[in-house]
Amino acid sequence: MSRLPELGECITLADYDSDPWLLVVAVDVPEGCVRAVLCADLAEETRHRLGRTVGDRDERRELARAVREADLATFEVPRADLERIDGDGIQGCARPGGQR
What we know:
alpha+beta; 100 residues; globular
């Protein structure tokens, strides 16, 4: 992974057979790591909202900030342990800078 995922991006952990999805709720904490929550730990309505925010960077970031404030277990994961789901960036959004 060349760059850190962005706030609100869904990622998986590298080298795990189950490929658990994680929602990035903070970036560079500590430097070179992301803080994330397991999507499976999110409330059903939050998971539905996660699906509805595909392609909407602003709403996805707002959702990630709200999840960060919730009382959920978070994980600090180094860049080397992360894999992208369907390419860089938030699913359905152009990369920052306008490229898909």
